[in-house]
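Retro notes - structure team

What went well: the batch runner handled both jobs without manual restarts.
What didn't: labels got mixed up in the shared folder, which is why I'm recording both outputs here explicitly, each with its sequence directly above its tokens.

Job 1
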Amino acid sequence: MLDLDNFKEVNDQYGHAAGDALIIAVATALSGNSRETDEVARLGGDEFAVLLPESNLAEAESHAEKLLRAIAAVVVEGAGQGITVAASCGVAGFSSDDGQCADDLLINADLALYQAKESGRGCVRVFHTDSGLHEKVTARLMWSERIREALDHDGFVLHAKPVIELKTDAIAFYELAIRLRAPGGILIPAAVFLYTAERFGMAIDIDEWVTGQAITLLEQTKTQPPLALGINISSASLQGDRFLQFLQSHLAATSFPPELLIFELTEAVAMANLQRARQFGQGLAKLGCRLALDDFGAAFGSFYYLKHLPVDLLKIAGEYVRGLGTADDPADRLIIEAVVKLAKGLGTLVVAEFVGDLETRQELLAMGVTLGQGAFLGPSRDVHDIPALQP
């Protein structure tokens, strides 16, 4: 498995057209430097995989180093100058009698790739069962089994965190978050298991589960005015039409306004495939649902994404909000004021995340931010403990 190093900076500095040209050039280099017996694939974003069915581990490592040199030699034009990129690579071996399935092999190669990144990037690392990575593989497989079990036997719990109107304390909407129920009553947050869910192709199943729960809640509750619900969406749901078709079929039998469903994409997810994110946003708009861009301002290309996505809400990255009331950082203040001014011109709502104290809240109000979220404004709670979300 190969992953380009710091590819995000290419998109941010030179634009997505240059990034696309670089992906195509890298794919050409990989194909041109592989044998007829090899299989070369793009897994997504800036990640590639090469299957070497007629090589031993030493030959595969040597071939991987050759591929990294080929990638380093790639040059594309952008902003009047040549753009180059380096890559990291993880190698894992398999045989017909070692009991591995395809997922095992991908995880091993992925772990070796992670080790290459940790070692300074631009290098090759080989997976060995005695390298300390084997325990991580076992843990990944255990988590995948837990996730599948939770999906099949109602093992997830839904929590909700309020987004409030800073001036009145009224709740504007709730952002939903999934938890995995573990033995002993422990609830495990999504950040712990979502990566494994994505690797094993279960992220879209989780998105559909949360969305289905949200639709049920909205259909059963009759608050006035009606409360909207925010749902975090993984990159898996942007691929193909499966999720939008799921959403369309489930909305067909409902009576509430579809704008009460707000789907949140992080900038990182949107950045990985802007075209798919744009199509996803357009699909939501056709269904009457809303799109929120989370962690806005975290990437250099934030305004580029905003130009090309049909966004209804902007959630300002927490790093700009934290400490507003205690630290005199003019850059944070100027960025927030610029986002507010931009959002007003576009008719887009703005939400400040990680509001941690009263002084920060007052600062945000003074800058024109009307909506906020954070532990100070209201904790995350089980949806069954929130009166407004009860039938």
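Job 2
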Amino acid sequence: MTTVQARPTPDNRRWKALAVCLTAGFISLLDTSIVNVALPSMEHGLAASEAAQSWVVSGYALTFGLVLVPAGRLGDMRGRRQAFLLGLALFTLASAACGLAHSASWLVLFRLLQGTAAGLIAPQTSGLIQQMFQGSERAKAFGLLGSVIGVSTAVGPLAGGLLINAVGTDSGWRWVFFVNLPIGVAAFVAGLRLLPRIPASTGKREEFDLFGVLLLGAAVLALMLPLVQEQQWTGRLKWALLPVAALLLAAFWAWERRQGQRGRAPLVDLGLFSLRSFTLGSLISLTYFAGFTTVFFVYSLFLQNTVGYSALAAGISVLPFAAASAVGAAIGGRLVMRHGRKLVVLGLSGVVVGLLGVVVAVQLAPLQSVGWATAVPMFIGGIGSGLTVSPNTTLTLTRVPVHRAGAAGGVLQTGQRIGSAAGIAVVGAVYFAHQANHERSVTAIQLGLLTAVGISLIALLLAVTDLRERHVHPEPERAVEPARQGSEEGGAGEAVGSR
């Protein structure tokens, strides 16, 4: 059956408010990859050690992932507008502090703060989309969000290369952070005027599950630390943290169940996982991000270290993927209401075909022409990426009750961050293990990309499984909670992708 719910009051300003959210989301996601090409500049201009450079990259990803779920819950409880503006202000100030850092230690500290702010922003964006839009408009809004996710990740190396090339090696790394300042200030001012002031809850004031936050935070930390530090922490002892993470996650699950049984508001509503769309969509997102984000990591290293491309040239080489991803996401946002999970299957198939095309191009093309030779398969993979991220985000969150949208978005994006860290650890290990000498560099990139293809195939298998289940059990899923809770606390929304 279709859940009936009150619709938000039409307001043309909500599209402008969405632009504010997407702008903030873009710069926060851009900072996950833009610093990669600036590391040599940091080493030259700041005398940053290899360990410090590692923490500039991994520290941001770590705090980003740690904050997502509690930040989403905070927005659900206290208001997404306030949480979003707080995160954006903190992100802008932390960016300024990063650019002004006079030592590598201070830079690492400010990057940790910047990652925390990014984690505060991200779940509010998906929550605000749930709050402001319905039906086909919501699918279109999530399509735009998917474009931002795909393009910001892919365009980071290009943006960093342009800045380093324009400013120079000594201080170019500072402008990687300074570029956020005018964008952040403009988005904050616009957000004050445009973001909706609808309160987060119309019911009683809920308590914040602090112990749940501590359990989940410890679990995510134990899970991500060995992944983000895989290259820096030698030896196998680091992997002992993974069973610790599993135990902490089990304890968190038990605690959240107890919270629900006692009638208290949990950090994560475990009823969300009774929704097949949310559970399968989250798993697809985790595995897909483990595959596709690693491509830019190893491919950029290959182009710069083996082929001899500059940071700018390496960034331009992945531009076809970024541009095609935006196009694919826009198309996916328009078609997801009609075709549902079929789009995700099509998109993942395109990603696999595109990456296999890159492997073949690297094998057949002369090294100096490899950037041109991979343009077409990169474009195909980018179209597939857009058709994957945008529709999957819509399908994953569309049945989530609006007053749980922030926490649900936090869970989804935590999976993305964990997937990215795990993928880089696995694919990076394969790549570096086969790059012992220059003669094997081509083999190294091919095996690294084939590993990414294997991970993407897991995501494709999950999508196909979900599609088949829908044919065998075609009945629509119910929302987690009843719909009649006011205009803000509406139910899950219209059925999407039931085909």
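One thing worth noting from job 2: Residues 1-9, 477-499 have pLDDT under 50 and may be disordered.
We'll revisit the folder naming next retro.
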